[in-house]
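User: Reviewer 2 asked us to show a designed sequence for the structure in our supplementary figure. I'm pasting the structure tokens here. Could you produce the per-position amino acids so we can include them in the response letter?
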């Protein structure tokens, strides 16, 4: 009987020890604090209208440009302009020697007038005596031939007087008065610089966004602090066969005559705004050739979130904002700052939602609130 009593006592004692250990472990587990959530600055992804700008280099040309050249070989008789002068349309610029042609013109006029008088006389007596219709027709033909010869000589004289086809500015003369000018030689240039044009080559993928009248801004090293504003004037109907580029022409006003022919300019073409997903550049974690963001997933506790690392594909990257092409969607909430100290799966709490304000302004309300609570505790 004593033996069974001892066995019962030891069993009861062992049961009590085990029960105490279990209860102690339960109490320890209950008293162990839950993991503390990390406070983060978050950003809600949403599309934004982004003004796109295409840049291209080009060479300026005058709206209209021509070389005033002689069509015949002759001695230069007169220059009716000063180098660099602004001239009006139809103004006489160059005169070549035409003394021989003027003398021939006087002779041709006399011949034509006499042929006309002869025709008029036979026309009046047509049908009388031996004046036949064939004779009248011959005199008419002689008169018209004389008139035609006179017009040929007048055209030869006109070839020796060169006029401005449009208003513009002349360049420097290449021949002096008295010099022999071979046919086809340029005597002076004429440019209409009231407007300047520039031809640009752009990738064909932008063709659907290009329109006549689209704003263009030109900049040149000659005037570094000035922007010249113009517009697209025409778009070529064909692509460049070897480059697959679209060619367009832009024009810009030049009232002060600052822009010159062959001046190299940088053209900025203002494209229509496009909706893009853009996030703060500080939210991107680069690991090798891959880029990631920490996306926040809400859990049962609405104030807490669990982080997941998501790989993204980026487009245009700027100092403050970066375009996201793939990986996240509009409405996602991501960690925007302090990502280097975070780990996937951690619990976080949103400290403040980032906007376009600087970080110092974002955290100002939080600091003010902490300062107020500190003063209240002191009181």
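Assistant: Here is a per-position design you can include in the supplement:
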């Amino acid at each position: 009987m004593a033996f069974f009593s001892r066995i019962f006592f030891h069993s009861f004692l062992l049961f009590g020890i085990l029960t105490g250990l279990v209860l102690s472990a339960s109490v320890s587990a209950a008293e162990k604090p839950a993991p503390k959530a990390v406070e983060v600055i978050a950003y809600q992804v949403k599309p934004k209208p982004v003004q796109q700008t295409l840049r291209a280099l080009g060479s300026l040309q005058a709206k209209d440009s021509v070389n005033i050249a002689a069509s015949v070989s002759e001695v230069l008789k007169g220059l009716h302009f000063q180098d660099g002068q602004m001239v009006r349309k139809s103004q006489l610029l160059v005169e070549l020697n035409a003394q021989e042609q003027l003398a021939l013109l006087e002779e041709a006029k006399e011949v034509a007038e006499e042929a006309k008088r002869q025709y008029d006389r036979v026309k009046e007596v047509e049908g009388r005596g031996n004046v036949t219709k064939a004779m009248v027709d011959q005199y008419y033909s002689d008169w018209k031939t004389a008139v035609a010869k006179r017009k040929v000589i007048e055209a030869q004289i006109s070839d020796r007087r060169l006029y401005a086809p449009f208003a513009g500015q002349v360049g420097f003369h290449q021949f002096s008065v008295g010099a022999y000018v071979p046919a086809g030689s340029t005597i002076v240039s004429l440019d209409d610089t009231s407007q300047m044009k520039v031809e640009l080559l752009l990738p064909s993928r932008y063709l659907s966004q290009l329109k006549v009248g689209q704003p263009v801004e030109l900049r040149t090293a000659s005037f570094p602090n000035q922007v010249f504003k113009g517009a697209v004037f025409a778009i070529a109907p064909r692509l460049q066969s070897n480059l697959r580029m679209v060619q367009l022409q832009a024009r810009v006003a030049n009232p002060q005559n600052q822009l010159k022919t062959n001046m190299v300019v940088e053209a900025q073409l203002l494209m229509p705004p496009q909706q893009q997903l853009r996030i703060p550049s500080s939210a991107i974690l680069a690991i090798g050739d891959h880029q990631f963001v920490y996306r926040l997933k809400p859990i049962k506790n609405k104030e807490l979130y669990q982080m997941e690392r998501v790989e993204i594909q980026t487009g245009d990257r700027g100092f403050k904002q970066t375009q996201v092409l793939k990986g996240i969607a509009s409405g996602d909430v991501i960690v925007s700052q302090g990502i280097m100290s975070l780990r996937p799966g951690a619990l976080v709490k949103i400290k403040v939602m980032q906007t376009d304000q600087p970080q110092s302004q974002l955290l100002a309300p939080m600091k003010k609130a902490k300062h107020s609570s500190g003063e209240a505790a002191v009181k």
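For the response letter, you might also mention the following. The chain has four helices and 21 strands. The first helix runs from residue 2 to 31.
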